[in-house]
# Entry
Amino acid sequence: MSIEAQPFDGHAVSPATQAFLAKRHGLLINGEWRQGRAGDSLTTSDPATQRLLASVASGGAADIDDAVAAAGHAFNGPWSRLKARERAGLINRLARLLERDAALFTELEILDNGMPRFIAGLTVSNCVEMFDYYAGCILGIEGVTTTPPPHVTADAEALTYTLREAVGVVGLIVPWNVPVSTLVLKLAPALAAGCTVVVKPAEETPLSALALGALIIEAGFPPGVVNIVNGPGETAGAALSAHPDVDKISFTGSTEVGRKIVQAAAGNLKKVSLELGGKSPVVVMPDADLDLAGPGVAMATFFLQGQNCMAGTRIFVHSAVHDALVERIVAFAKGFTLGHGLDPAVNFGPLISAAHAARVMAHIDRARADGARVVLGGQKLDRAGHFVPPTILTDVSPDMAVFREEIFGPVMAIHRFETEDVDTIAAMANDSVYGLSGSVWTRSLSTAHKLVSRIRSGQVSINCHGAIATNIPFGGYKQSGWGREFGREGLDAYLQTKAVTARL
Ligand code: NAP
Ligand code: MG
# Structure
């Protein structure tokens, strides 16, 4: 396939990206690129132009079997005998290669996902940091010594210590919304822990995982430590999550598929970590700094076109500041520049696919029919690509579908409330099956901390929303997930504890 230099709304991509797109893309199994056993492929396109980007090999259950076997072999092979320092060295080398190729990865994320350049750039530099962070953690993986153990023997000395060991072969199943970073967020700690992995990227965004696969080979990881099988969730993903030789699945995606993963995992009772959906509350109190809250609340919903698990999408605004805040949010949202993410001026891209844009539009139409008022947006753009503009709905009541269901698009639903009672406000904020993120906007320290302690979410922010950093644990309460990623807890997810007692 030949790719012209400037096919993307007139924006150029680098020669490295052109060369990557023109490659034949296989599955990475046991350190080698190969086609799937059934010879299938899937195509991926640019959501901003609907232009075909690449065709990549697509695997099924038989390829998952091969990949799991390779990962199992690698787990018991040289990988497990590497010194911690050597493992850290490989991960650091991978970080340096990713840094070297940052421009390629940035362009691939923009093209495959549609994200604006500033987000793609951030994503790639965060991935470099994650590899370095978890490589740095390796020498800190340590058990504890306890002596003597309380109840082993009455007549002899004994020594007990604990070892922190890798969980084993781990399946990493990731979504399309931030492809490389949701992958590296799992891969970096899994490798640091000493696990081997089989990666199943999202069908919509197969490219950055493949580019990372090439760097993993270049860095010199032993064959089989990282295997990458693109393919459909219903076949490749399901086979991986049901596989008897897989010790753990780490999944990021929808709550609906998360439930299927748990069911599939029941066969061999593999461990499961889940980062799932959200419908996060944003509470704006009457004493909020509106100049801060206007842009802050707008970004809470519209960052990454709302295709963001921690998006704040249930906006509770106190009556006293409702109109003034809505005015500021609308003014801010009108300032977004929509277009192709390759354009550095663009800060709002398309949605991932035609099907997803249609789903988002159906939510907007349903909200209209339910009595919500559209104060901005609400119509799909009449141009190539899947562009739904920032859409702001007021007069939304908490029972409307738009206020309850995860939309995963640029749709803000605003509910006006009257009370200042923190228990009542928290009860409204908690009226959701999800509990991923949330934020509270107020000048009062007391109100802020009272609300924070009452909101049942894994992440609650004060006068900002959705702070993500390598060392801040992130994960869901309720149906938003099991376990935490990022930080030390993100590494613990790939370790298990062995207690050893020696009678002396
Ligand atoms: P999704 O439909 O759940 O898909 C996620 C991944 O699972 C994809 O790789 C998908 O493959 C695969 N999959 C689908 N069916 C499967 C099955 N039966 N067994 C195993 N794997 C299967 O989610 P998405 O639409 O890609 O992403 C959006 C969702 O992810 C939203 O709900 C969002 O909130 C959530 N998310 C959560 C976080 C977080 O950290 N909590 C972060 C980002 C996104 P295919 O691509 O082939 O369908
Ligand atoms: Mg794509």
User: Anything to note?
Assistant: The mean pLDDT is 96. The chain has two domains: 15-276+482-500, 280-469. The longest strand covers residues 158-166.
